[in-house]
Each structure stands twice: as C-alpha cells, then as structure tokens.
Specification:
It contains eleven helices and twelve strands. It is an alpha/beta fold. Strands 3-2-1-4-5-6-10 form a seven-stranded parallel sheet, sandwiched between helices. A three-stranded mixed sheet has the order 7-9-11. The chain has a two-stranded parallel sheet with strand order 8-12. Helix 6 (about 200-210) packs parallel to helix 8 (about 260-270), helix 6 (about 200-210) packs across helix 10 (about 310-320) and helix 8 crosses helix 10. The chain is globular, with a radius of gyration of 19 Å. Mean pLDDT is about 90; it is low at about 1-5 and about 340-344.
Amino acid sequence: MDEGYTLAPMRLLVTGGAGFIGSNFVRYWVEQHPEDHVVAYDALTYAGNRPNLADVEDRIVFVHGDICDGSQAEKTLRDEDIDTIVHFAAESHNSLAVLNPGLFFRTNVLGTQTLLEASRQVGIARFHHISTCEVYGDLALDTDEVFSEDSPYRPRTPYNASKAGADHAVRAYGETYELPVTITNCSNNYGPYQFPEKVIPVFTTSALDDKNLTLYATTENRREWLHVRDHCTAIEAVLQRGKVGETYHVGSGVEASIMEIADLVLATLGKPDSLKEIVPDRPGHDRRYLLDSSKLRTQLGWAPEIPWEVGLAETVEWYAANRAWWEPLRARAPVVEGGWGTAG
C-alpha cells in the first residue's frame, strides 16, 4: 500500500477462499487490513482445503458455499453485508479439464454468471474477477510477442475457454447492468499451500519421496512465474486504485521451462537428475505465455518483490517442512499425468 493511502474499512467476500491463491489472499488481507471484515466462501471440492485457513480462522468468517448456488450466494452477501467480492473460485487444472470439460464450464462460466447476478441483486460496490493469461492462447517459443490487455482471446483448451467465458460474463455485467467490475489476468502462480497436482508442488513432493518427476515431452515449453504474495499485492492495488471497468495484467516478466523448474527443484533438495521422466504431452498443451504488465506497473505503481529463484527455493523448502499438510492431499488428485484415459 502507498504510504499515507487510506481506505474505508471493507467487507470482502473471497470466493475460493480455501484454495491456493484464495487462502494466501485471505491471509495477506487480514494481516494488512485487520480492520476489514473477510468472508472466505468455498465449496471445498478436492482442491479446496479448510486447513489452509487454520492460522486465520479466528479472524475471518468461513462459509461452505457453491458459487453455482445463487440463493446461497445472495443470502451470504446480504447476511454478511458484503461490499466487495474477490472472485478466485474456479476449476483450474488443465489436465482435469481435458478429461471432464463440463465441470469447468459449469463452475467457471455458469458459476461466475450466477455470482454476478447475486452481486447485481444485492448492489455490490466492487466485483473483482481473477482470470488467467491462458485466455489468449499461446505464443511461439521464438517470438518477442507478449499478451497485452487488448490481445484477442484465442483459448485452446476447455479450461482456457471456460475462463474466457467467465471474463466475457464479467464485462457484460459491467456494460449491461453497470456492475462495478475489474479484472486481473495473471501469469502462473507458485508458493505455499498450492495443491499437490500443479507442477512445482508435484515435482517437490515427488522428489522428497524419491519418485520420478514427470515432464511433458515438450520440455522447453515456458511459463511466466509469479509468487502468490506478489499476486496478492497486485489485487490490493487494483481494489484500492484501479479504475472500474478496466483489466490489468499481473506478471513478473520471468519465464522458466518445465526442464528448468525440475532442475531447480532437484538442486534445492539435493536430488539426482535421474528422477526426471518424460511422459506424453497433454492434448492442447500450450507452448508459452507472457504478459505485458506495464499498465498495472505504471498506472497503479505495482511491482513484484520476490525474485524467482529465491521464491522457488523458499517454496520447495516450505513443502519439505510441511509434509503433514500435503501428504493427505496427494491422494485426492484426480489425474495421473500422461495417462489420458478417464478422470479418477
């Protein structure tokens, strides 16, 4: 927060508040804004984990709720006198979306529209929607091109398409009903409390148990990586200083390939390269994403603070120190990478 900048106390509903980014955001917000009222709203699907909030449970309200249930959503907004929504709730695992696309369109598109309608009925002061770089499709590995806020939408997978549909619904409610909306499209996040199905935690937990790290065959495909805490500060900047109706990109500018990540995880843990195993590519596997985040940086004064290699090492060390957190979750993962049959 800018020094000297003040904001009236807020009453926030954080959807997906027991998930990876949502729980980190809830924790960040109650630490930085103890005067605000925070409600974590989560359906507690396989990736939602109430213990993610254990250290802040006494400072928040938790509601076990589904964004697809409009009556419950509207009741919660009214009962808790919510003025601001930060909407993280989504199915987000690309591999699962290949196997069960209907789940993603239900939650990400219809769920978002249902929540928007509840917000319209109640008269929410700000609806902030969390989106992804993946709505734009992918980039060639050898290009200097980046995605801007004006880039065309070209989703290539069911997950990408479902998030694109959610973005369009948010903008439509802003235009048609004048619901005060903002959107952030973010690059890949990493950090503590990420469910052990995504690449960094699955590599780390596998290496800790001396199991193979499965790498897709196109090992040079790259992603832009941002520490989850830097994502939280970006959302804070948009809530405090962002312009209603605007979209802002949140990115670090730091790219890493799957091979580079595997090497860093193994080096941090002192494990051998022989643990790397190549598996078939996921259908529709995107090559590269990179966001132009200059609008957020120049207009709102935001910048990431956690260097990639420092943040990655700290994240790997967090998983090494918190086996009791991730070990019970690992069995919940619904996909075996490289086995493109049916969801478990």
